Write a sequence for this structure.
């Protein structure tokens, strides 16, 4: 393209001043265009990422510059039952919540892929849990999980008479853990459903017609057409979902703050508690850094999902 | 269970036209589609209904399910909203959040439009790698960054200032917007720019007069998305802002309104409802852009 633009017009038709010419000089223009984005990301993302890894090897506290202490922070974490608790709950939380989100979200996407009246309205309504600030919907869940005035307890005890006493959702470890997972699934379903719906709509109906002519059952059509065709988008959405579920902070911080008895700490909330609230920046950074191996694993998972088909070549988006 | 039903229906339909893929029996359709859909909608929307109904209930009704049906309000009251607006710094928090969201959105839009234009249209050696790098930045979650970022913010002397949030939010907005806009720029025919180049337009003129006007839907998508994400952001706002007056709505409700052992659920829910309203209104105006940007960004 640059070849076609070089000749006459630039030389004959205008005598632009040096500023205009400078901005038309391609390397300069590229540098100028990339500068704001790259600058912001370098100063506030790359540098802190490196700094965080460095902090994890120091004993920095708030207001006091730390010194290099090698692997002390990590050794301490390995002997800390709270850290192990946070790791195992993070894994359980991510595992169950991801499974729930994808099972229910895929089902919802399949339902939405049918024809029925008010489809776009319904699609709009379904995205609401994802649009509203997480902390604010988490507060609503906190109120729904109230030990005394929980509406779920009211339904089960006073309306349906299935149970004799109120459920103590957040008062003991396992119920609290599962209550948080339920809230996370609730929040995650819309994102999964709408993303997968977009993928479903790209599958050509002629594939299904061919399969039906060959006598494939509904399950076979799902298993051998829908599922393989959805693999690439499933891989991407799942990576995002796993990364942001594993590093979740808001829901847990808003509803339980890691309680009761530190049983619902995720790595992120534990890092906050030690690093910011407790002032032990070095230790908090070490907890945050300990999330990285899990995230790398999730990203690789997506990469190999991507490699299955040249997804990024991305044709039209419809 | 579903399989056997579906199988039976396919056998029955085997000889029908391809359009009969949708099950024709009305009752089956009701059981397989409308009933589960209804349950989904009910569960997904219930917390909002509960939030709304709690905000307008007098305290007596809130704490007494025996005499009042909890699913309805017998005597609605604006007391909680009034308490929120006049006895707390809520309007101030709303204002701060709005300013932070608008500032961060503007900054990210400018940065990512230029970056996306350079990567997609100025095409230089290594531009795909720059694109990939920006994409990878999106995969770095805030939970890993907030501790070192807090020290960076302190170093810059921005601790406890909303300006810190405006500068930090682009770290998760720019990757998203850039990726979205690259997709939009891709859809604009190259020939238009070539014509302009032949006619002697400078690159910046082309960006301003041709590419940007054609990419307006993409810009709107990126803008409303950034606005929503900055409005909802929590962990940075919690870590970097100390004083009550400078807090954003999500943080302030959680840290300033939750006091003592007796929670004022009415005020808390009214605060949540009011804090959700701006994004909900925004959302209802631009639903299609949301859906397209959500699916577009994931698929690109």
């Amino acid at each position: 393209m640059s070849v076609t633009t070089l000749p006459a017009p630039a030389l004959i038709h205008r005598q632009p001043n040096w500023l205009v010419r400078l901005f038309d000089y391609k390397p300069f223009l590229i540098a100028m265009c990339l500068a704001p984005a790259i600058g912001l990301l370098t100063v506030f993302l790359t540098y802190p990422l490196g700094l965080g890894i460095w902090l994890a090897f120091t004993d920095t506290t708030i207001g006091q510059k730390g010194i290099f202490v090698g692997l002390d922070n990590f050794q301490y974490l390995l002997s800390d039952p709270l850290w192990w608790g946070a790791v195992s709950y993070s894994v359980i939380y991510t595992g169950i919540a991801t499974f729930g989100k994808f099972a229910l979200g895929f089902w919802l996407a399949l339902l939405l892929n049918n024809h029925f009246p008010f489809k776009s309205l319904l699609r709009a309504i379904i995205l609401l849990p994802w649009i509203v600030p997480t902390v604010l919907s988490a507060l609503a869940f906190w109120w729904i999980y109230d030990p005394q005035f929980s509406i779920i307890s009211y339904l089960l005890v006073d309306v349906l008479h299935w149970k004799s006493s109120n459920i103590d959702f957040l008062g003991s470890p396992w119920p609290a853990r599962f209550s948080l997972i339920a809230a996370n699934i609730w929040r995650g379903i819309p994102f999964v459903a709408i993303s997968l719906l977009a993928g479903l709509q790209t599958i050509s109906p002629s594939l299904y017609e061919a399969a039906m002519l060959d006598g494939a059952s509904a399950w076979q059509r799902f298993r051998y057409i829908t599922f393989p065709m959805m693999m690439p988008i499933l891989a991407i959405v799942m990576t995002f979902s796993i990364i942001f579920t594993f590093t979740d902070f808001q829901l847990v911080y808003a509803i339980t703050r890691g309680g009761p008895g530190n049983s619902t700490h995720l790595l992120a909330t534990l890092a906050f508690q030690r690093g910011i609230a407790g002032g032990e920046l070095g230790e908090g950074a070490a907890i945050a850094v300990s999330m990285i191996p899990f995230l790398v694993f999730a990203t690789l998972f997506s990469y190999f999902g991507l490699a299955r088909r040249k997804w990024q070549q991305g044709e039209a988006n419809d | 269970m579903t399989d056997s039903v579906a199988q039976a229906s396919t056998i029955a339909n085997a000889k029908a036209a391809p359009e009969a893929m949708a099950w024709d029996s009305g009752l089956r359709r009701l059981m397989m589609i409308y009933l589960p859909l209804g349950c989904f909608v009910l569960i997904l929307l219930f917390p909002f209904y509960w939030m709304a109904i709690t905000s307008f209930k007098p305290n007596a009704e809130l704490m007494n399910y025996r005499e009042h049906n909890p699913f309805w309000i017998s005597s609605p009251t604006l007391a909680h909203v009034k308490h929120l607006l006049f006895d707390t710094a809520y309007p101030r928090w709303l204002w701060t959040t709005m300013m932070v969201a608008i500032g961060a959105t503007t900054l990210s839009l400018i940065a990512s439009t230029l970056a996306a234009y350079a990567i997609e249209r100025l095409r230089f050696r290594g531009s795909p790698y720059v694109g990939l790098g920006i994409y990878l930045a999106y995969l770095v979650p805030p939970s890993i960054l907030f501790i070192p970022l807090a020290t960076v913010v302190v170093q810059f002397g921005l601790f406890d200032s909303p300006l810190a949030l405006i500068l930090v939010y682009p770290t998760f907005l720019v990757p998203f917007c850039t990726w979205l806009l690259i997709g939009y720029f891709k859809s604009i025919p190259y020939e238009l720019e070539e014509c302009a180049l032949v006619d002697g337009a400078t690159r910046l003129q082309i960006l301003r007069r041709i590419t940007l006007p054609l990419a307006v839907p993409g810009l709107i998508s990126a803008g409303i998305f950034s606005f929503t994400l900055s409005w909802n952001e929590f962990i940075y706002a919690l870590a970097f802002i100390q004083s009550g007056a400078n807090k954003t709505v999500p943080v302030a409700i959680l840290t300033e309104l939750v006091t003592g052992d007796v929670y004022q659920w009415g005020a808390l829910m009214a605060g949540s409802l009011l804090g959700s309203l701006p994004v909900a209104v925004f959302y209802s105006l631009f639903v299609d852009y949301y859906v397209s940007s959500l699916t577009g960004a994931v698929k690109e």
Observations:
- Confidence is low (pLDDT under 50) at residues 1-12, 310-318 of chain A.
- Residues 81-112 of chain A form the longest helix (32 residues).
